[in-house]
Amino acid sequence: MDPGSFFASSRVLIVAGKGGVGKTAAAATIAVAAARTGRSVLLIEVSGRTSAAPMLGAEPQGYEQTDLVGTGAGISCRSLTPDQALVEWLSDHGFKRVAKRMAKSGVLEVVATATPGIKDLLVLGKIKQLETARAADLIVVDAPAAGHALGFLRSPAGVLDTARTGTIHRQAVEAMALLSDPERCRVMLVSIPEETPINELIETSFAVEDEVGISLGPVIVNAILPEIDGLDPEKVRRPHSRSITDSEVRDMCAAAAFRLERSALQKAQLLRLAAQLPLPQIRLPQLFVPHLGPDQIEQLADSMLSGIESLEGDS
Ligand SMILES: Nc1ncnc2c1ncn2[C@@H]1O[C@H](COP(=O)(O)OP(=O)(O)OP(=O)(O)O)[C@@H](O)[C@H]1O
Ligand SMILES: [Mg+2]
After folding, report:
1. pTM to 2 decimals?
2. What is the number of structural domains in the chain?
3. Does 301 contact ligand 1 (Cβ within 6 A)?
4. Tell me: the pLDDT tens digits for 277-294?
5. Is 49 close to ligand 1, i.e. is its CB under 6 Å away?
């Protein structure tokens, strides 16, 4: 599939998945890949532990939108918190003077206790507002981790149960409309090719699609070990060099066997995922660096673009 068409197919992509599987890395990678197809991108962080901006060579971002440079060219970035979304919402609705004081005095906590899901709804409401205002061609959301992501996506339905009329009700209806329209919004789930994360991914995908009614884009499988030729311990020939001792050869054979085994486990999980979840997969390689920076995200964006090119039709 042409990457340009892929990134034009939804205006909001929400990147979700279990803690630590690479959601932030995937969100930064999607942003860079989409920017390369000429789209303007707004990368939104929703209170994650790690920030995407440093992966793109920038400082962690605050509530205000900032244009990135270098690898992040064409991308602007901001971090949305419910408190700031509330202050802005109150200001826009005629409560400018009291808004800041109300937020500071902890009123949000009182409201949040009375209306479960309201914090998530405030953030989703802000995302909806940015989408409606066409703040960028594509909005990429680095969603909260693990169980919270489902709560986040379920929040409009939950709030609808408690607030049956009024402004909050309207916010929830509008957020639902955004989430349930695949041309406006899709979720891309991220996992690593290991048993438990893959199980969780499969469970979450059914919950997202069937319970919440949001369309899913391709699944991102992150941290795939690259193939290395010549690892088969049976075929190892001792090098002629005398500088390698027998014990070093044994260690290298053990390392090679370990790597082969890990690759085989990953392949088995990828096959299981394909068999159990009828969604296309985009695979990103494991890179061997302590922290991902702009060079690595560029590399992951190359893999993502080739992954999208090999997707069939209009998925
Ligand atoms: N493909 C990769 N190759 C190498 N390192 C990676 C890769 N993907 C992610 N990482 C590293 O793994 C760690 C976790 O990644 P990341 O922060 O993207 O996960 P996350 O799912 O957003 O985590 P959290 O749930 O805490 O928000 C980071 O240190 C990141 O640099
Ligand atoms: Mg993260």
Report:
1. 0.93
2. 1
3. no
4. 999 999 999 999 999 999
5. yes
